[in-house]
Amino acid sequence: MRNLSWEQEVEMEKAKLEKYERQLLKMRKELLGELGYLEDAVLNHTSRDASGDLSAYSFHMADQGTDAMGRETAFLLASQEGRMLLDINDALRRIQNKTYGKCGDCGKPINPKRLQAVPHARLCIQCQANEERNLQQGG
User: Fold this and answer.
1) Measuring CA to CA, which residue among 96, 113, 119 is closest to residue 20?
2) d(Cα 92, Cα 25) in Å, to the nearest integer?
3) Cα-based distances in Å from 98 to 17, 21, 24, 92, 101
4) CB atoms inside a 10 Å sphere around CB 19
5) How far apart are CA 63 and CA 107, in angstroms?
């Protein structure tokens, strides 16, 4: 059992929140960099751009397929990373609103080990499992 004063407890919590906030900001910066790279490297540069062919149409079906596959891959990655970015921004808002670390469904504290592993977690393990089960069941 701890023998900390209320002020010490508050300061400790504040330090933990600042640690999570720094971690989330770092993750956000990395994601924004990756999204910028995807946009620049894949969406704006097709194989025709790389070959110097600036015509609007590809002469080879293989080039068209490669370009389409590259765009699809980029969109998939961008949508996954975009979702992660939304989750991170939501977690940062919860820190500001002083609701970070509380489950969005049941309101109970989220286990600190879960927050260390997934700092943008919105739900406790039990509620997350329930949500995933409901999604799998189509509900």
Assistant:
1) 119
2) 8
3) 9, 12, 15, 10, 9
4) 13
5) 52
C-alpha to C-alpha distance for 71 and 67, rounded to whole angstroms = 6
Per residue of the chain (139 residues), what is the pLDDT tens digit? 456 566 666 666 889 999 999 999 999 999 988 888 766 666 555 545 545 555 555 555 555 566 667 667 666 677 788 899 999 999 999 999 989 999 999 999 999 999 999 999 999 999 999 999 999 998 6
Joined tokens for residue 33: 């960099």
Task: Please name the amino acid found at residue 9.
Answer: E
Domain boundaries, the chain: 1-49+60-100, 103-139
Closest CA to 89 of 34, 33, 25: 25
CA atoms of 49 and 70, how far apart (whole Å): 13
Contact (CB, 8 A) for 51 and 104: no
Which amino acid would we find at residue 94?
Answer: R
pTM for this model (two decimals): 0.69
Beta bridge partners of 102: 109
Tokens matching residue 63: 């080039």
